[in-house]
Amino acid sequence: MEKVIKPQNQGTKQLFKNPILEKLSRTHISVPLIIFFLYSSGLLYWSITHTTLSASVTVLMFLLGLIAFTWVEYNVHRYVFHMEPTTQRKANIQYTMHGVHHEFPKDKSRLAMPPLLSITLSTLLLLIFRLILGDLVFSFLPGFLAGYAAYLSVHYMVHAYQPPKNFLKILWVNHAIHHYKDGVGVYGVSSPLWDYIYGTMDTHTPTHH
After folding, report:
1. SS3 label, residue 198
2. Phi and psi at residue 59, in whole multiples of 5°?
3. Where residue 205 falls among pLDDT bands split at 50, 70, 90?
4. Cys staple from 142: which of 40, 49, 71, 128, with CB 3.0 to 4.6 Å?
5. What does 163-183 look like in DSSP terms, one character per residue?
6. Are 15 and 194 in contact (CB under 8 A)?
C-alpha cells in the first residue's frame, strides 16, 4: 500500500544534491504553458501548410487529442504517480515524481513539468503518434498538448488560488479531497470524467485544509 504523506502547507524540499539537477526540477508555470502553446501552434501551422487535412478533420482530431489527454492524465496519475512502492527503488521514484508534491502541495515551483522534460516529452509523443496516425498527428497532438496545458493551468490554480464562486469550484474540491483525505481516489485534475467512469470518485469532505 502506498504510504500516505502528511502535507505541509508551506515550504519546499531539495530533491537532488546536484544544484543543476535541482534547478532543472523546478519551473515557473508560465514556461511549460508557453512551450506547449508554441509547439501546438507550430504543428497546426505545419498541418495547414504541408498536409491535405480538411478543416473538419483537423477540428475533430484536435478534440480527440484533447479527450485522449484527459484519459492519459487520469491513468498516469493513478498508476504511475501513485504506483505501489513494492521496492525501495519504486518508492524513491514515486516520491521524486509525485510524493514530494503531496508533501509540499503549496510549492509553486514544482506544480508543472520542467521545460527540458516538456520539450522532450512533446517530441517523443510527436514521433510515436506520427508512426500511428501519419499526418493526423499534426492536429491530434496539438489537442493533446492543449489538454496538457489545461491540466497544468488547473493544477496550478487549485494550489495557488482560492476556489472561485462558480461551477469550477468543484475542481478545487475534488483535488482537495485527493490531497487531504488519504491521497487515493479522485485522480482527475482537469476533469472528473474518468473518476466517474472507473469508480474512483470519492465525495467525502477532506479532513484537512
Report:
1. helix
2. -65, -45
3. very low
4. 40
5. PPSSTTHHHHHHHHHIIIIIS
6. no
Phi and psi at residue 37, in whole multiples of 5°? -65, -45
Backbone angles phi, psi at 84, to 5 degrees: -70, 120
Distance, CA of 194 to chain centre: 14
Question: Vertex 82, ends 37 and 114: CA angle to 5°?
Answer: 30
Q: Which of 208, 166, 167 is nearest to 191 (CA)?
A: 167
Amino acid letter at 57? Answer: V
Task: Give pairs for 84-87: CB < 8 Å, separation 24+.
Answer: 84/1, 84/2, 85/2, 85/3
- Cα distance between residue 136 and residue 130, in whole Å: 8
Distance, CA of 71 to CA of 28 (rounded, Å): 25
Closest CA to 155 of 205, 107, 92: 107
**Three cell numbers at 116?**
527540458
Cα angle, residue 74 at apex, residues 170 and 124 outer, rounded to 5°: 130
Confidence (pTM): 0.83
User: Does residue 167 or residue 142 have the better pLDDT?
Assistant: 142
**DSSP states of 8-50 as a string?**
-SS------SSHHHHHHT---THHHHHHHHHHHHHHHHHHHHH
CA 4 to chain centre: 20
